[in-house]
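Fill in residues.
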């Protein structure tokens, strides 16, 4: 499902993701390399016209990973060793965005947000979100999971004994 649909289905998790994205401007992208090993890459994540979109340099390794195997994880950047703000992970697949009008909208968004516009060629993917998970630590720790079938579920936290 696209970002707009995810936001309607799991508004609390979407707000957490948007808040963390607004604070850091970064996410972490998990892909699978050709040899099967996982690859983690920092990435700027944007929400444009109801889609979570990922722009990448032309023929970058992470883009080639997604062309070969569309499975992807996007997580909020965690910079607090105590983990009190928590991190949200989105799991799904990435799909190429070839439509000129959507690429223009992405460029317009970047130009308005960071005063920079990508030049072709570059890779642009939208994420189809299939599940999500959130965990935080500290006094107000929480552990949540979301799936389309199960909705949001509060799970037992590892710190609960």
């Amino acid at each position: 499902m696209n970002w707009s649909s995810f936001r309607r289905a799991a508004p609390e998790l979407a707000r957490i993701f948007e808040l963390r994205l607004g604070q850091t401007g970064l996410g972490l992208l998990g892909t699978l390399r050709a040899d099967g090993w996982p690859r983690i890459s920092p990435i700027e994540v944007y929400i444009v016209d109801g889609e979570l979109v990922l722009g990448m340099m032309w023929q970058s390794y992470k883009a080639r990973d997604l062309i070969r195997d569309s499975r992807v994880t996007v997580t909020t950047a965690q910079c607090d060793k105590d983990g009190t703000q928590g991190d949200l992970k989105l799991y799904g697949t990435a799909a190429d965005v070839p439509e000129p009008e959507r690429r223009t909208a992405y460029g317009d968004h970047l130009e308005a947000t960071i005063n920079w516009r990508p030049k072709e060629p570059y890779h642009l993917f939208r994420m189809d979100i299939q599940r999500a998970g959130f965990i935080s630590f500290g006094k107000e720790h929480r552990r949540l999971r979301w799936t389309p079938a199960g909705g949001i579920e509060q799970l037992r936290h590892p710190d609960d004994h």
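The first helix runs from residue 3 to 9.
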